[in-house]
Design brief:
It is a single chain. The N and C termini lie close together (7 Å). This protein folds into two domains: 6-173 and 357-369, Rossmann fold; 187-354, Glycogen Phosphorylase B (Rossmann fold), CATH 3.40.50.2000. The chain has 15 helices and 13 strands. The chain is globular and about 60 Å long. The protein is of the alpha/beta class.
């Protein structure tokens, strides 16, 4: 490119644990772009880790609900109007309107990154008025994007048809390049001395099958570790205590991405279970699924279309509904059948050669090159 093109990415999280955006921004910086990632600062936010791209967090009075989204969108619009960019890239629907307004006012390019089916997440689906508002904004804003992309085949098909805008597919997958894992982590916190580890990594939110996974532990001789926090943090801790499972279920809290790699590598089985609480979950393709594959950790996965398709190609996971009895039965199969376990593990290591960021990065850079 003749000059350095500046891209501002916008998210509504606090940046600290967003591995996906760290990958995307780093790839673009390495390709010669100037990149700024904008999020929000919460009262509980930790200090940001240094990255190759610029990071900015906006302070908000409100931290959740309609007032948060209203306040954050206003603050974000002001930030975008007073900061130069050649391309405004909105990550998910909750930051798209400020990016669209800034792009139109400044005659710049707009990119939309649909990480999920925002109007179909459980928190929105269960609130009809909220859903209508977000659907209105989606229909108003998305068709104005110069480029759009999402994380899976089915979502691409749905969005392309619904918004008459072509959505490219860029999988949310890790890099296959070996990275040195920090040795400063206090390993005994994460590694059980006696039991094999079953790991869930990600937000502790509604519809993730977490209650069922906890109840399944009554019939499983292993240790369940939950790496993350979320809306259900308190409720799940109460459930563990009520069920007398404190010796079998451990909460690791928020974990930094580099530490999470080490925790995942120590796990015996990964969990990626969802309840059918909206099309966002039903057509999901979660980054944790690929994290398990890259660590060579067989996982128990939701029996939904995108996971079915990948498993048909690679035979690297066991599909299971979010039901406590079915979960315990499936986990016990993996704990006891060493031949099956090794086959799935070997297939994970083969699958990661195809399902890696090095291949998706090429598609990302080619897309942005057409805008430069």
């Amino acid at each position: 490119m003749d000059r350095e093109v500046k891209i501002i990415f916008t998210v509504s999280n606090d940046l600290s644990y967003d591995q996906r955006m760290q990958r995307i921004c780093t790839s673009l910086v390495n390709a010669g772009y100037e990149v700024c990632l904008v999020g929000r600062k919460k009262r509980s936010s930790v200090e940001l880790q240094a990255q190759h791209f610029k990071q900015t967090r906006l302070n908000c009075i409100f931290e959740k609900g309609k007032l948060f989204y209203l306040e954050y969108n206003i603050r974000l619009l002001l930030f975008l109007l007073f900061n130069h960019a050649d391309i405004y890239s909105a990550v998910d629907l909750d930051t798209l309107l400020p990016c669209l307004l800034a792009a139109k006012i400044k005659s710049k390019k707009l990119v939309f990154d649909a990480h999920e089916y925002f109007t179909e997440v459980p928190e929105v689906v269960e609130r009809p008025l909220t859903k209508k508002i977000w659907e209105f904004l989606a229909g108003l804003c998305i068709p104005h994007a110069n480029k759009a992309y999402t994380v899976g085949t089915k979502l691409s098909e749905i969005f392309t048809e619904k918004y008459k805008t072509n959505f490219e597919i860029i999988l949310n997958v890790p890099s296959s390049t070996h990275q040195q894992i920090s040795t400063s982590i206090n390993q005994h916190i994460y590694k059980s001395a006696h039991l094999q580890i079953i790991l869930y990594q990600g937000a502790l939110n509604e519809g993730r099958g977490l209650e069922e996974c906890i109840l399944a532990m009554h019939r499983i001789n292993a240790e369940l570790q939950l790496a993350g926090e979320g809306d259900l943090s308190t409720k799940l801790r109460t459930l563990v205590a009520k069920e007398g499972l404190t010796d079998k279920v451990k909460f690791l809290g928020f974990v930094k991405p580099n530490e999470l790699k080490q925790i995942t590598s120590q796990a015996y089985i990964g969990l990626n279970l969802l309840r059918d609480k909206g099309l966002s979950y039903y057509y999901s393709l979660a980054n944790k699924f690929f994290d398990y594959i890259h660590a060579g950790v067989p996982c128990i996965c939701a029996d939904f279309p995108e996971y079915q398709n990948i498993n048909m190609q690679y035979d690297c996971t066991l599909l299971c509904p979010a039901d406590a009895d079915r979960i315990s039965d499936t986990i016990n199969i993996l704990l006891n059948d060493k031949i099956l376990y090794q086959k799935l593990k070997d297939n994970c290591l083969k699958a990661k050669e195809d399902l890696c960021w090095e291949k998706e990065e090429i598609k990302l850079l080619n897309m942005y090159k057409t805008l430069s």
